[in-house]
Amino acid sequence: GQNIDQPTEMTATEGAIVQINCTYQTSGFNGLFWYQQHAGEAPTFLSYNVLDGLEEKGRFSSFLSRSKGYSYLLLKELQMKDSASYLCAVTDSNYQLIWGAGTKLIIKP
Amino acid sequence: NAGVTQTPKFRILKIGQSMTLQCTQDMNHNYMYWYRQDPGMGLKLIYYSVGAGITDKGEVPNGYNVSRSTTEDFPLRLELAAPSQTSVYFCASSYSDSISGANVLTFGAGSRLTVL
Questions:
Q1: Of A2, A91, B98, B114, whose CB neighbour count within 10 A is largest?
Q2: Cβ of B12 under 8 Å from any chain A Cβ?
Q3: Per-residue pLDDT tens for B29-47?
Q4: A2 at the B interface (CB within 8 A)?
């Protein structure tokens, strides 16, 4: 079966750095997405990786290793507004999007 | 642009009742989707559409129906509501990013449905 694993919850301190991991086992691979979802709101697009390596976008970076079935989202200079759930999703060989359950990130002052 | 608009935001149904969740987008996106989100689980695809007049089942279509008569509108119908359909429903549309080629989803604000 197809599977995406992420930690359920993480806690970090304002101003610090946090890394949210995502491992996947899917039938084929055509790209990996990270979305941010604040409580009670809709998911919003953060990043996309299709080739191995690091994609940097301001305070957020996303890394992909296709051979290891692994990605991480790196958040720097954490702010209170970064408290949210972070959803990892993979596009499989049929271009269907498979979603992880999300990682709830709690930021403490 | 309003983006993706869903109504209603909240609804309580009795078992066996029917209702339609409305979804409309003003971005001229061809692809539209309905997802449900349950606590502790990833988003599950109910139905999707690649364009007006074309719809396809997703992972969890049972108990739902959709139609796509126009590019803008993609309503989701629950015919006989069951407690298992208590969930948060998201409508989304997607575009292909011109630089990365990624199929990026834009979501509506969600509809919280409770079936009692």
A1: A91
A2: no
A3: 999 999 999 988 889 999 9
A4: no
